[in-house]
Structure formats: structure tokens, C-alpha cells
Task: inverse folding
């Protein structure tokens, strides 16, 4: 038999692909089935958010920030609004702070449900996907009661909120908490501790701690490697210092610390912690007027502000430069998925193509955030 | 450690590369570094015992004013829990800055984005090409004097 030609094969895992979680292009260099090199190409969803923001007034930018990471709109709005309020130097009512925290934690649960459901889908488990989305529907119903929108809210405004919450919302949120707790256990039984899922995800894509810190990976990606760092506790913003919750890290319960399973388990545990925060906040919301501190014209002093927040995907920060006029001079969005995806080359080498799909899913990326 | 303490430390080691320190601006104080010294300064910031800025949180390119472009670095230390803001200002006629992608791997993609959108060139970067816009796009959109092209590959751009 003639010698078999063994050359390196370059394959395109193109922008249209069911497992790339959006329009992401991966150029894979393969030796048979083993991956030698992964080169991500992005920019298919670039909408020039930063250039548009320079032409709008500060409050008009908020719907644009919604659409950056469209699965987590509340967290994006909060990060932007905190930076503008820092530049303005205004005090916001406590009622607003409590409601913002409740909304962000509900949003965290919704975002992690998408991450868990689609991750199971990547591995071939179709049932948990729909179970997660049933629960996500309940959260989106809560958001619809408050502001009328299910996914892109324009709810958190500079200095306050667009609408106040009703007693109906508080009642339904408490019902949601009692409904959702046993559902987390059900998702864990279905997917997290499922033998096939564990075999698919342990010991692949191990991200060492120093690589993660150097490359700017944050959020569950960093916590899966064992570092107990959460911006809500370590660089606290809003009123997160009033609540008690644990920071979940990957402990190596299965597999090695830093592999895909440990990144995934951080998200599964964080949903329970978010429920704890909502429980602590929902009963003690002080009275007040949510619109009382909303300024008629937002005209900050000339300066810059950089506020980092913990979005479900990692460290989300907005760097706003103001020149004293009604429009921002420069808005830069530091997105967590942008930095998380850049490490994929280093950690995928030596694995198979199916493992690349699982590694990519464990980062939980949203292309709207990467491309802006 | 506060920004002025870091500034004093750096001034002792690199006398001519460090510009002035601005402390009375809202919100965070910052200081300037010259474009050709930024790599050496970054290595010092990352490796020095008492500083240990091991994380580059954000690198933004911006159009600073009529004649200058700027790069702004936001640094953070996981060891000592302190932050720093550093700026490098370069003229538009020659926007060349030393790369820091060998110091922090996060800078790799951020510098490509700054090159793409603002037009700064990073000397020593391993792979400087456009990241968000198509490879054959002309112009750098985030500059204040950017004009949207009429046609791109036969398609009308403004609609």
C-alpha cells in the first residue's frame, strides 16, 4: 500500500455554525482529528456601538448598551449607568439601588440558564435545554411585568429607573424563588452529574491560573481555575456589600481544576447564590421615588470614569470620557467575552474537534459583546 | 498603593520616560508615559514586588484632540488589589507606540482593535491586522475626522 499522505488540514468552522454560539469563525489546523492551532476571527456582528455613542446624548446610549450582550441586558445597563453617575456625582435613592440589585441577580439566573441549556445542547443533550428555557420564561415574565420588555429593557436609567415595581412583581418574584430552588436540583440531576456529560467535559481545556490572569479572563472562566475573585465582593459597587453570598469556585470535584466541567459548575452553583441575594433584598426594599434623582439633562463634568462590574460572563466595564457636553466624547466597552475567547488557542491544542466545541461552550460567549 | 506613590517609584527608575501626573481630574488620577518607553515601564509594573500589576483590565485607543491620538491602560493587581491608569499620547502624523502584548497577553486583541478603529500602530506586535472590520476596509472609524466611504465593494454604505 502506498504511503498515506499526512499533511496538516485547515478547516473552517464558519460563522454560520450551530455550536459556535453566534457568528464566530474558527480556523482550525488539524492533524487528523487532533487540533494543532485555533484562530478565532470575529467582527461579523460589529455594529460600531462606540461610534454611535459619540453621536447620542448619555441617556440615549442606554438602549445601545442593551444590545451589546443581549442575553444580559440589565447588567450592561447597570455598568454604563454607574460610570455616568460617577461622573455626574449624584446620589441615587436606596429604593433604586435595591431594585437594581434584584434585577441584575434575576438577569444572572436567566443568563446562566441559557449557558447551561446551550452547553448541554452542544454535548448532545437536548432535554435540559428546554427545561432551562421553561425556567427562563418565568424570569422573562417578571421582567415583562416591570418594564414591558422581555429581553432588551431600557430600564435602568441615569439616576434611577424607568418604571417603579408593583406589589404584583414582588409577589411573583417570591413565587419564583420557591419554584426555582427545586428546579436547580433537577437540572443538576439531569445534566451536571450525568456520567456522559462528565466524561465529555472533564480534563479538557485546562486553563492555568497565570495564563488566565495574564490574558484578562474573568468571571466563571477565572473562578473555574480556582481563584476566589468576584467583583461584587472584592471591588464592590452598588449595594452588594449589604448582602451575604458565597463566591463559587471550581473545586475539582470531578476532573481537574480549570477544565470545562469546573467552569460549568461555577455557573450552576451561582444560580443558587443569586437566589439568596434576591431573597435577602426582596423583603427590605425601602420606600421612595425611583424617578426623583433622574436629571433633566445629563451633562457631566469633563473627565473620565472606569467602573468594573461583575456580569454573568465576567468583568464588564465601561470607560467613559466626557468633555463637558451633552454627548460622550468616547465610550469604550470592555467586554468579558472578548478577553475570554482570546485564550482559546492556547488551551485547545492537542484536543479533538468535538472537544473544541465543548471548550468554546464553557466560556459562555455572546458575540454581541465581543463585536460590539 | 496610591497612584502618586507608584508615580514616584517609576520616576526614580525611568526619569525621562514618565510624563506628568494629573490628580485633580474626575475620577481617577493618571499619568503619562512616553510611547517608546511603555514596554519597559509595563515590565517593571508587572514584575516589581510591591506593584505586581498582573492584569491589564482594558486598553483603549482614542482620538485625544485635534493633533494627537492616545492609548489608555487600566491596570489591576490581583495580589495587592490596587489599580492604575496610564496614558500614552502620540501625534497623529506618527502614531507609533511600543506594544505590551509580550507583557500581558490580553493586550494582543485590544491592540488589534485600537489599530483597527483608531489607526495606531503598535511596534513589535506579532499579528497586527484588522479584527472587527473587514480586512479591506479603508479608514479608521473612531477618529473624529472620519468620513464614511460612499461605496464598499460595490455596495452603497450610507443608507
Result:
Amino acid at each position: 500500500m502506498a504511503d498515506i499522505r499526512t499533511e496538516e488540514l485547515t478547516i473552517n468552522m464558519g460563522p454560520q455554525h450551530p455550536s459556535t454560539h453566534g457568528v464566530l469563525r474558527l480556523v482550525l489546523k488539524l492533524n487528523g482529528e487532533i487540533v494543532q492551532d485555533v484562530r478565532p476571527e470575529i467582527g461579523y456582528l460589529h455594529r460600531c456601538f462606540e461610534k454611535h455613542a459619540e453621536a447620542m446624548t448619555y441617556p440615549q446610549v442606554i438602549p445601545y448598551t442593551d444590545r451589546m450582550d443581549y442575553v444580559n441586558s440589565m447588567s450592561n445597563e447597570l455598568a454604563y449607568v454607574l460610570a455616568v453617575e460617577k461622573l455626574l456625582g449624584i446620589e441615587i435613592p436606596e429604593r433604586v439601588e435595591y431594585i437594581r440589585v434584584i434585577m441584575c441577580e434575576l438577569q444572572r439566573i436567566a443568563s446562566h440558564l441559557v449557558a447551561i441549556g446551550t452547553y448541554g445542547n452542544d454535548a448532545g443533550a437536548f432535554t435540559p435545554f428546554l427545561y432551562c428555557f421553561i425556567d427562563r420564561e418565568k424570569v422573562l415574565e417578571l421582567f415583562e411585568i416591570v418594564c414591558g420588555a422581555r429581553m432588551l429593557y431600557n430600564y435602568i436609567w441615569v439616576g434611577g429607573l424607568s418604571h417603579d415595581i408593583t406589589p404584583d412583581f414582588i409577589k411573583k418574584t417570591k413565587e419564583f424563588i420557591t419554584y426555582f430552588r427545586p428546579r436547580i436540583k433537577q437540572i443538576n440531576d439531569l445534566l451536571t452529574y450525568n456520567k456522559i456529560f462528565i466524561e465529555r467535559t472533564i480534563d479538557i481545556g485546562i486553563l492555568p491560573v497565570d495564563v488566565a490572569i495574564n490574558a484578562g479572563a474573568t468571571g466563571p472562566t477565572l473562578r473555574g481555575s480556582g481563584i476566589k475573585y468576584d467583583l461584587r465582593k472584592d471591588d464592590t459597587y452598588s449595594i452588594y456589600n449589604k448582602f451575604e453570598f458565597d463566591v463559587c469556585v471550581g473545586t475539582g470535584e470531578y476532573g481537574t481544576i480549570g477544565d470545562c466541567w469546573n467552569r460549568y459548575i461555577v455557573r450552576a452553583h451561582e444560580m443558587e447564590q443569586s437566589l439568596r441575594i434576591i431573597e435577602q433584598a426582596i423583603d427590605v426594599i425601602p420606600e421612595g421615588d425611583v424617578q426623583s434623582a433622574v436629571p433633566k439633562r445629563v451633562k457631566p463634568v469633563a473627565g473620565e470614569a472606569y467602573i468594573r462590574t461583575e456580569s454573568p460572563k465576567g468583568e464588564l466595564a465601561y470607560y467613559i470620557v466626557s468633555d463637558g457636553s451633552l454627548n460622550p466624547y468616547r465610550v469604550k466597552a470592555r467586554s468579558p467575552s472578548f478577553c475570554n475567547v482570546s485564550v482559546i488557542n492556547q488551551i485547545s491544542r492537542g484536543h479533538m474537534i468535538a472537544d473544541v466545541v465543548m471548550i468554546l461552550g464553557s466560556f459562555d460567549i455572546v458575540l454581541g459583546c465581543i463585536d460590539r | 498603593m496610591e497612584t502618586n506613590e507608584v508615580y514616584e517609584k517609576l520616576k526614580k527608575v525611568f526619569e525621562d520616560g514618565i510624563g506628568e501626573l494629573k490628580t485633580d481630574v474626575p475620577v481617577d488620577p493618571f499619568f503619562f508615559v512616553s510611547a517608546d518607553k511603555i514596554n519597559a515601564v509595563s515590565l517593571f509594573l508587572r514584575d516589581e514586588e510591591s506593584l505586581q500589576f498582573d492584569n491589564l483590565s482594558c486598553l483603549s485607543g482614542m482620538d485625544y484632540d485635534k493633533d494627537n491620538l492616545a492609548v489608555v491602560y487600566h491596570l489591576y493587581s490581583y495580589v495587592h488589589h490596587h489599580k492604575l491608569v496610564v496614558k500614552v499620547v502620540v501625534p497623529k502624523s506618527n502614531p507609533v507606540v511600543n506594544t505590551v502584548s509580550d507583557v500581558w497577553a490580553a493586550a494582543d486583541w485590544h491592540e488589534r482593535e485600537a489599530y483597527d478603529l483608531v489607526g495606531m500602530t503598535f511596534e513589535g506586535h506579532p499579528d497586527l491586522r484588522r479584527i472587527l472590520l473587514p480586512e479591506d476596509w479603508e479608514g479608521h472609524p473612531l477618529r473624529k475626522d472620519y468620513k464614511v466611504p460612499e461605496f464598499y465593494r460595490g455596495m452603497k454604505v450610507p443608507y
